[in-house]
Amino acid sequence: MSALFDLTGRVALVTGSSRGIGSSLARALADAGATVVLNGVTPERLKEAETALAAHFPPGRITSIAFDVTDGDAAARSIAWIEENVGPLEILVNNAGIQHRVPMLDLDVADWERVISTDLTSAFLVGREAARHMIPRGRGKIINICSVQTDLARPTIAPYVAAKGGLRNLTRAMTAEWAASGLQINGIAPGYIHTEMTQNLVDDEQFNSWILGRTPAHRWGTPQDLAGPVVWLASAGSDFVNGQTIFIDGGMTVVV
Ligand code: NDP
Q: Which domains does the chain have, with CATH numbers?
């Protein structure tokens, strides 16, 4: 492996990594040498994910901590625990997210707020806590998992579209405040990726053929498609990349 992309000795936290995209990103970071902390809200599922991933690596390389990313106090306690028990946190992937499908006229405020807090406020809370430890050391990488919905808007997912658009701009705001302290904060905007979150869309024949037609690569993405870009953004290979959001979408956002 090129030394540019070698993450040996780096501690990484991937939120929402008990399954789906987060789980794949955690594996990729560990494959590049990082010591990885998994996260989710469901302790049993998280433990299972930790056991499965740890089987591929030497002891101590994979650990986990369950906390709700919308809870700022829990984020602070969890990152303090990582710093004390695993090592200095150098890579944070803000990946945890949810979706709620309902037309806006039927959307109640509690569901609006639940999506905004899980998909946007969480990145501020966990990112701020990570930055409090990274800034004094003068180094750190934060990667925010956005979506093509930062640029495009599908009907029935208004809070998701608003949150992901906000997350792209939060990536810029973090850069404005923290880049001078040696941090790189960037975003990844995935296209349609086959995971539990999108299983119902894959199963919907009409939607599925719309996606295939709308995506120049003519296929759904896989979590693995995001691994290379995230390892690069976590590595020294991207040290002068600041505040960008990179679209990994099979070309969806560049064609009409
Ligand atoms: P999944 O639904 O498969 O997984 C979501 C993960 O987030 C789980 O690990 C879940 O943990 C965790 N999570 C949810 N809420 C919280 C919370 N409050 N605190 C901590 N962890 C939480 O989603 P995907 O893998 O598909 O998506 C991951 C990210 O990628 C999301 O931000 C999503 O918006 C984004 N994305 C996904 C796309 C897709 O097509 N799939 C496309 C573009 C972006 P638990 O298991 O405990 O519930």
A: 3-250 (3.40.50.720)
